[in-house]
Amino acid sequence: MQIEIQGHTDERLSDHVTARLEAAVNQHADRVGRVTVRLTDVNGPKGGVDQTCKVTVQLARGGSIIVEETAKEMFTAVSQAADRIKHAVGREVGRRKDRKRG
Questions:
Q1: Is the pTM of this model over 0.85?
Q2: Do 35 and 2 contact (CB within 8 A), yes or no?
């Protein structure tokens, strides 16, 4: 599994993104091809709830899952997106297993 981070980050944020997303998809790592994380500050220095984390997971056998979260702080947006992607990937893997059995 490969994690690509796009956007302005420092080492602390980059480590946080990597740790949270590895933990989120680790259970299904054999079914995940690439994880792309795009971090953006929508309003720039104006402030407000505008820190956005968009996560795209490319599944190994085709298809992708996209989750986007916005929060006041980037660390929060990343954590929320990682939680959502964990559930979404698990749900999709479960569906694929059910189709394969059926």
A1: yes
A2: yes
